[in-house]
Amino acid sequence: MRIGFAGLGRMGVPMARNIAAAGFDLTLWTRSTDKAQALATDLGCDVAESPRALSDASDVVVTMLGDDLASQEVHTGLFAGATRTYVEMGTMSPDYIHWLGAQAPKGSTVIDAQVSGTNTGRDRCAAGIMVGYDKATAAPLRPLLAALGRQTVCPGRLGAGAVMKLVVNSLIHGISHTLAEAQGYGPRDMAVILPFMRKETPRKQLCLSVVGKATRRWISPIGTAICCGPKGSR
Q1: Is residue 179's pLDDT more than 60?
Q2: Residue 193 contacts residue 186 (beta carbons within 8 Å)
Q3: How is the chain split into domains, by residue range?
Q4: Which of 30, 86, 114, 227 could form a disulfide with 8 if both were Cys (CB 3.0 to 4.6 A apart)?
């Protein structure tokens, strides 16, 4: 399977590396030609001169772009090429995903495959991929998705992946905010609070596992800034 990959940012670069490591025939494109060429030299793959050229060189195009507008600009060129399967993995709005599906060439398939979790672990894979399609439609892409994430779920329809990503983010940020606020009422050192809460109840342990490393990394400075105000103000 020939894979085109567009968007070589913080998430995109390790994803492209995983695709190459899985043995796929990979072609890259990003706005910075030098960046794409440097990675392509490292991976031993090709670089396309434009989104349309990337589409012409690929069976499936995967995009990891920053927002709706960036995705729209790139897909204008992609849709002019030969590819008929497009997988948008950036965090996009559900409305945009539906619009993108409506704009795709006749006979094309647009799949939203939102990622959750970081890509900085040992295998540098996302913790999970939420695919906005049913399992049967997504089945041919399973080997590709397996190279990019440790778990794949199929909510069942176009845009459902984007909705599920919003749900996951809302849950994580809501828990993070709640813990930050709670920190204002207790010890400022979360190293004291978190071990106690983990042992308190299974439900609390579940909540803390959702927040994970992000909580330990961000909650103390955020909690102090939001809840306690400037140093010495209380």
Answers
A1: yes
A2: yes
A3: 2-157, 164-228
A4: 30
Residue with tokens 């490292």: 42
Report the pLDDT value the prediction gives residue 69, as an integer from 0 to 100.
96
- What is the mean predicted confidence (pLDDT) over 42-66? 97
Q: pLDDT tens digit string along 128-154? A: 888 888 888 888 999 999 999 888 888
Q: Which residues are known catalytic residues?
A: 165
DSSP 3-state of 3: strand
90 phi/psi in degrees, rounded to 5: -75, 165
The alpha helices in 60-201, defined as continuous H runs, are: 68-78, 94-103, 135-138, 142-148, 160-183, 190-200
Query: What is each CA distance from 148 to 54, 72, 125, 222, 223, in whole angstroms?
Result: 20, 23, 5, 31, 33
Kindly state the helix (H) or strand (E) to which residue 60 belongs, with its residue range.
Answer: strand 60-63
The correct CATH number of 2-157 out of 3.40.190.10, 3.40.50.720, 3.30.450.20, 2.60.120.1440 is 3.40.50.720
Q: What is the pTM of this model?
A: 0.75
List Cα–Cα distances, 163 to 91, 108, 138, 155, in angstroms: 10, 22, 17, 9
Q: Nearest to residue 148, comparing CAs of 114, 100, 109? A: 114
Contact 151, 131 (CB under 8 A): no
More confident residue, 102 or 153: 102
Residue 107, sorted as left (phi over 0), alpha (psi -120 to 50) or beta, turns out to be left
Pairing of strands 25-29, 2-6: parallel
pLDDT at 16 over 60: yes
